[in-house]
Design goal:
The protein has about 475 residues and is an alpha+beta fold. It is about 50% helix and about 10% strand.
Length: about 475
């Protein structure tokens, strides 16, 4: 009897397993019509997922490796992973970019890791997504062409002061920290009307740690990038409150213009319910603007300097273009709106720099509902990620992808959805034109003054979270003779 029971036990287990499997299959058909065909991939360690591999590849100088290896192993269309504590599907190629950009607020919505919400806490207890939507409603008035036209001369003045104080009469400089100071100075001047170098430096000091903590493992322990980012955010916020209070007093006493910058606009504009933003809310939004207005542009400027040092023939063309503009100016005359279209080759160079060293590696979305992409089921609530690295160096879109070739951007330029340093669709970076102006104004002032050479020919590039030369790109300057 006991032998019979032992003999029957494996068959009973098999029968039960098959029955449960069939039941699960039927339930999936009932709820979804067909069994879910989820993207293949790895989710890594519990909670951490594959975040360490994702971040470490960038810090080792190969941010594209995380994407390319998994595209080869799992799918060139979409693969599954886990990043920053969330199950995620990484969408690849131009088709993936097009799908996400075209379905904004239909099938997908913006999402940021929890680290962003903690470093940029909202005074109104709303999410980063909601705050971003509000900001996009505020920005168009300050980024429309007529507003940008006013910014060019201001940018030129700040650039001249920056080069006079930090570059002129120097034999050697380190580019990245100086580029960050320039773009941050511009942001402070145009958003807050703060232009005193000492005040700007006081605001700038915590920003390195703040930026490093934005895309970091959300581990709030002393010494971690995340913890430093939270502390830095609080320091900057405290300084912003002082600026806001002073501006309110100046507006009340008619000592400040009602239209001079974004800060005045925020203080004086009410919403559809007739309510004004409080100081905490304004500080939230200005903080986000300052980060967005300086970090990515400073990385692009640094790599422009790097590539122009490595490619003398490209430098010569930029120099020729910018000197033609300079020679057309009367003594002391500043750059203006009409000068920008004359910088076509210079902007093509900047675009090629952003193809090879995109300042933004990608961005997250969240699935609003279940949907199908390329035959794969994407469940509601999954986080979605698009990456510049799935297209920018793809030889199908960019022949000889490692070659620096500004002519790629002549005429109609790259195929849609293949070149995405500013994202795409409704969520394309609203500051794209602002960034174009500050980059071109910097290039104009730089090449007019100097030629240069790299001091570290084989300097390593790291991505944390933006691409930067590991030692900040030290260069030796060769001033042009008057």
């Amino acid at each position: 009897m006991e032998l019979s029971l032992l003999y029957m036990l494996p068959w009973a287990i098999l029968f039960t397993t098959l029955s449960l499997s069939f039941l699960i299959y039927k339930l999936m058909i009932i709820s979804h019509g067909t069994p879910r065909n989820l993207p293949s991939g790895n989710t890594g360690l519990p909670y951490i997922g594959e975040s360490i591999q994702f971040l470490s590849n960038g810090r080792k100088g190969h941010p594209e490796k995380f994407i390319s290896e998994r595209m080869l192993k799992f799918s060139s269309k979409v693969f599954k992973t886990s990043l920053f504590g969330e199950t995620a599907a990484v969408f690849c190629g131009s088709a993936g970019n097009k799908f996400l950009f075209s379905n904004e607020n239909k099938l997908v919505t913006a999402w940021w890791p929890s680290s962003v919400n903690k470093i940029f806490p909202s005074s109104l207890q709303t999410s980063s997504q909601e705050e971003s939507k509000k900001m996009r409603k505020l920005l168009p008035g300050f980024l429309k062409p007529e507003a940008l036209q006013r910014y060019i001369s201001i940018m030129d003045v700040i650039a001249q002061r920056h080069f006079e104080s930090s570059w002129d009469n120097k034999e050697e400089v380190t580019v990245f920290p100086l580029a960050k100071m320039f773009t941050f100075w511009l942001a402070c001047r145009l958003f807050l009307s703060v232009e005193d170098p000492d005040h700007v430096e006081k605001l700038a000091e915590p920003f390195n740690e703040l930026a490093a903590g934005i895309i970091a493992l959300p581990i709030d322990l002393p010494g971690t990038s995340f913890n430093k980012g939270i502390k830095a955010s609080n320091l900057v916020r405290k300084e912003l409150h002082a600026i806001i209070k002073k501006r309110k007093m100046n507006l009340a006493d008619n000592k400040a213009s009602t239209t001079q910058d974004i800060l005045s606009h925020m203080l004086l504009t009410c919403d559809e319910n007739g309510e004004y933003m409080n100081e905490e809310d304004i500080a939230d939004k200005i903080l986000g603007l300052l980060v967005g207005g300086h970090d990515t542009a400073s990385a692009t400027i640094t790599f422009i300097v790097k590539f122009l040092a490595e490619l003398p023939h490209v430098y010569d063309e930029v120099f020729k273009e910018q000197m033609e503009i300079a020679k057309s100016k009367a003594p002391g005359e500043l750059l203006n709106w009409e000068d920008i279209p004359k910088m076509r080759y210079s902007w093509n160079v900047a675009c090629e720099v952003m193809r090879l060293a995109p300042p933004v590696q990608g961005a997250f979305r969240e699935a609003m509902n279940d949907f199908i992409f390329e035959g794969f089921s994407i469940p509601k609530g999954w986080k979605l990620y698009w990456s510049t690295h799935s297209t920018h160096r793809n030889p199908e879109h960019f022949p000889e992808p490692e070659k620096f070739d500004p002519s790629r951007f002549e005429g109609k330029g790259p195929t849609p959805y293949t070149y995405v340093p500013f994202g795409g669709g409704p969520r394309m970076c609203p500051g794209k034109e602002y960034a174009r102006l500050e980059v071109l104004v910097f290039m104009h002032n730089l090449v007019r003054r100097f030629k240069w050479e790299k001091l570290l020919p084989d300097e390593k590039i790291i991505v944390d979270p933006m691409p930067i030369p590991a030692k900040g790109l030290p260069i030796r300057l060769h001033p042009h003779q008057p």
